[in-house]
Amino acid sequence: MCTLEKRGNIFFLTLTGDDEHRLNPTFIDSIKSALSEARSQATRGSVLITTAQGKFFSNGFDLAWAQASGSNSGFQERLLHMVDYLKPLIAELLSLPMPTIAAVSGHAAAAGFMLAMSHDYVLMRKDRGVLYMSELDIGLTFPDYFTALVRSKIGSPAARRDVLLRATKLKAEEAVRIGIIDSAHDSGESTVEAALRLGEQLAGRKWDGEVYAEIRKSLYPELCGLLGLAEKTLISPRL
């Protein structure tokens, strides 16, 4: 489901396999376990890079898992369960005591798009893959923390409109132009290489991770309120 590898101060979280990396409870548990391990091993200068194998970064919630219930009411119940189950994972990324980078190596749709946007930096390959909030096209509304995440991370009202109210499929260069991601790269390999270079720069600052996490939370009060993340005042001077 996913692997966690530590190279110096940098943790590499890789969504494994060659499928769509759809988010069901088992997969979410796997990612949460990896993040818990990274948190337990974090030191000054730690950084997390998340990437994925194959064509997809993540194609969102596992709708086939929801449909396996065999009834419309069961589908809705399982879908709502996944919505609630993903919430602590997003909270974990928002409170992780280190900078986080998503190296988006393929399509990132719906909840998979939100997973990528929960990182501090988003880098993406431009030769393949799109960012896409599919809910409007398939007839679903957005969870409150999804829309709060979009409001928190996408500064342009026009860009937010196109993402949520036009279900626009954004390639990397367009996503850079409208300020949704940080940079676009020629291939999956070059995206990960750029993420590693950025990670090494950030790791070199040797910031206190807990202070970093609290400052991050203070940037997104609406989102953190919905996620149940309370701010703490920390004083850890390096004089």
UniProtKB/TrEMBL annotation:
Gene Ontology molecular functions: delta(3)-delta(2)-enoyl-CoA isomerase activity
Lineage: Eukaryota, Viridiplantae, Streptophyta, Embryophyta, Tracheophyta
E.C. numbers: 5.3.3.8
Name assigned to this protein: Delta(3)-Delta(2)-enoyl-CoA isomerase
One Gene Ontology biological process: fatty acid beta-oxidation
InterPro entries according to UniProt: ClpP/crotonase-like_dom_sf, Enoyl-CoA_hydra/iso
Pfam family, one: ECH_1
Entry coiled-coil feature ranges: none
Family: Belongs to the enoyl-CoA hydratase/isomerase family.
Keywords, ordered alphabetically: Lipid metabolism
